Amino acid sequence: MGGENRGVDLGTRFVKVAEGKTKVVYDYDADHYLLYFKDTITAGDGARRDVIEGKGVINAQTSAFLFKLLESSGIETHYVGMYDERTMIVRKLRMVPVEVVLRNIATGSIVKRLPIREGERFDPPIIEFFLKDDARHDPLLNYSHMEYLGLFTRREAEQVEEVMRRVNDALYNFLLSKGLILYDFKLEFGRLGDRLVIGDEITLDAMRVRENGTLRILDKDLYRKGADLETVRRSYEEFLRRITS
Ligand code: C5P
After folding, report:
1. Does residue 7 register a pLDDT over 90?
2. 210 lines ligand 1 (CB under 6 A)
3. Degrees to nearest 5, angle at CA 68 with 222 and 94
4. Which protein residue has the closest C-alpha to ligand 1 atom 10?
5. What is the pLDDT of residue 25?
6. 208 lines ligand 1 (CB under 6 A)
7. 192 has which bridge partners?
8. pTM (two decimals)
9. All structural domains of the chain
10. For position 2, what pLDDT does the model report?
11. How far apart are CA 239 and CA 150, in angstroms?
């Protein structure tokens, strides 16, 4: 039984409010959603799609662990607790459809867009905003774009950047203590009253992590570069084991 089928079970008890490429959102109660992690993995704005048995459980556990780590550093996230091994109880946020990326080391889209060499270290880190829009391939946004489109005001964008830097300080040092280098990561934010709170997930689907020293890839770049699915699964599992031990 794949993780996609188990979602049907939740669907009989809760109203589905949204479904993305790797997660399903259900209405839990007045203040909470259930966030169900599927076994799917996708790349190229959903152009490639596969199922990795157990990935949803690994990602739900990974995200829960890292959200708790952030909360212990005083950074507010939507995480409340677990409903089951692959379903998270989260606070209802009004999500802003923007992907916020922080880069410590150059790789991925930035080395294709700008005259920057793979592996260059950014000090201070570079922060970028992208519109969540598969059809337009998630275009890069500046402050004026975000203000005009009603996404983040300039003031909010600056607050988000500050949270990104605090998250980076916490995650980078934690992962380094586990022998891992955090190249970059993506977060999404939502509104809770007048506050901006971290939503979505923190998993290897949304960050790049390399082994310190060997620079062995542990993250979704394995899948993007065409590694076999069992290699990807084992890597995600290894990451969860390393961070939780
Ligand atoms: O592709 P790019 O270099 O812009 O990705 C930067 C970071 O954001 C990577 O960690 C990648 O996994 C993440 N990302 C994401 N969802 C996207 C695009 C990028 O989680 N749609």
Report:
1. no
2. no
3. 85
4. 207
5. 98
6. yes
7. 195
8. 0.97
9. 3-92 (3.30.200.20), 95-228 (3.30.470.20)
10. 46
11. 37
